[in-house]
Amino acid sequence: MSKIQLVTEAKLPTEFGIFRIVGFEFPDTKKEHVALVMGDINDDKPVLARIHSECLTGDALHSLKCDCGFQLATALRQISQEGRGVLIYHREEGRGIGLINKIRAYSLQDQGLDTIEANLALGFAADERNFSVCADIFELLGVKQVRLLTNNPNKIETMKKSGINIVERVPLNVGENRYNTEYLDTKAKKMGHFIVHNNEQHLMTCPHCQEEVPEK
Q1: Domains recognised in the chain with CATH numbers
Q2: Apex 156 CA angle, 153 and 157, nearest 5
């Protein structure tokens, strides 16, 4: 496979501030990824950054089965508050198995399997994502040092192996609720994610208004 290329960019005003949206594409497969960029990221100062894997159900449909939508909004808000940073929108839905297979995995979870067991039952690995492309995107953007917003040690390890200088891990524990506690437990216990529970209170923080919303 050929290396990903930067192909276009434009201004993107959002509720979190004005970003540049930068489009990337593999010349042979036409597989696309994007990055949202704010401020000057090409100096020698560490850049606050998030690698966010695509999650239609969480990001756009506000599903409570995961913490993805909450993490996306919180990361964009934190980048905006700093006035500079990068969010790579890594387009590998369902930990790389695709949207329809993700829904199939949801169905298996409805029957009692956890997220990893469901992926394995469908014939996939626990996580099919390839984060190395994100290192290429950081390089194309001219990012030299990264403060990575993540709970996932695999993202950190992959970036370091790919030559990206991760100077700090910034925790991103948001969005816990009674529908995703077991999902978060599975990520912590089976995938080694750095999960901090919300004192078992199961309060959701609205990703847009930042107000705590008790469950009914």
Answers
A1: 5-92+129-191 (3.40.50.10990)
A2: 85
